[in-house]
Amino acid sequence: MKLFIQGAAMACAIVILTTPALVRAHGLEGDRFFPPTPLTDDPFAVDELSLPEVQYNPASASREVDITGSLSKEIFPKFALSIQDTYINLNPKGGPAQDGWSPITLNAKYQLWEVPEHEFILSIGSDFALGGTGSKSLDSYQYYTTYTPNLYLGKGFNELPDDLKFFRPLAITTVTGYDLYANNADSNALEWSGSLQYSIPYLQEHVEDVGIPRPFRDMIPLVEFQMTTPTNRNATPTTGTINPGVLWEGKYCQISGEVSIPINSQSGPAVGGLIQVQVFIDDLFPKIFGHPIFGRDDNSNEATSEK
Amino acid sequence: MRAFLTILFTVAGFSLAQAHAFLDHADPKVGSTVAGSPSVVKAWFTEELEPAFSKIQVFDSTGKEVDKKDVKIDSSDKTLMSVSLPALPAGAYKVKWSAVAVDTHHTTGTFSFTVAP
Questions:
Q1: B31–A25: do the CB atoms touch at under 8 Å?
Q2: CATH for the stretch B18-116
Q3: How many residue pairs bridge chain A and chain B with CB atoms within 8 Å of each other?
Q4: Which of A7, A206, A286 has its CB closest to that of B4?
Q5: What three-state secondary structure class fits A204?
Q6: Region A124-136: what's the mean pLDDT?
Q7: Does A286 lie at the interface with B, CB-CB under 8 angstroms?
Q8: ipTM for this model
Q9: Could you tell me the pTM of the whole model?
């Protein structure tokens, strides 16, 4: 596993240094590109492929490495379905190692409200973690399904006055969801996550060309948070992480790296990290991806004449 | 490991596929203040453009279009789109572009520049 992470890091560095130009896909609201970020599901119902996301959590009781893959496909205009699964490698201190798959998670998402001139988008959706689809070798195996209705939000800071123009590249995304377990034993929980991003491409292309060279002009520094607040049935304190990092946008993929800092001892006493590779499949295979299966929407990559 | 690196390099930049066209740089520069009216606005993109569906417009602070509506894609550099301007008075101007890459990906964007008094 260590070799895998080292190899992935090396490959990321080489790709960043050798890929010539910035080109991004989907996730556009007005001038704003909202990139998919590792911990906060972006509000866009579009075609995305995340493969792999590697997360390393060196907690005190166990050292955990998660490898996640997900695929999202727009079915109808502004409506997408996705599937995700995670391979977990757990090494508890003083106990036997555990390997296996988490439950398969399905997601449905719909872009409910968009205001491009205000770089605003609001979407609704739900996660379905299917009970019985994970590996029984994991202590976290669930025989029951978890439903999580979600509210997704994205907002750019484009309305700031000229005196604050260098803050216009800022944007936020949030996801607020509520875990509903299909059993009576576990506490339901509020899941709340978000990102604060500073887009250097936005600065260069829409605010002021200050001459930042590549590969730095293709980067988006960001801070993400990911929290869980149990709400009933012997609820425990809120747990979560603060995750500063940086995201680099390549021609056909995006690479993210973040450090995970636990917010309290219940969240783990040690700092972890994650690397995610996001593939822009609509750029790689424009005839297959980048448009809904049924119908046609404004996010389609089909040319529309305006002349 | 070898298979992983092969996949990563393939999808990262060594594919023959095309991609979305975004603004690379412009003249006048994005957000710049220029002395005297420029005779043309030039915008370079990250992909070659489809002339039939791409355009660039310049508006003054009242929202009136002030360019000469003679949008051109450079025949020797299809990433360069330009539009001519009349003599502009001092003030702030907004450039709106709509770019369609040769593989039909469609993007839009805006930026501003100022003509100094």
A1: no
A2: 2.60.40.1220
A3: 122
A4: A7
A5: helix
A6: 93
A7: yes
A8: 0.83
A9: 0.84
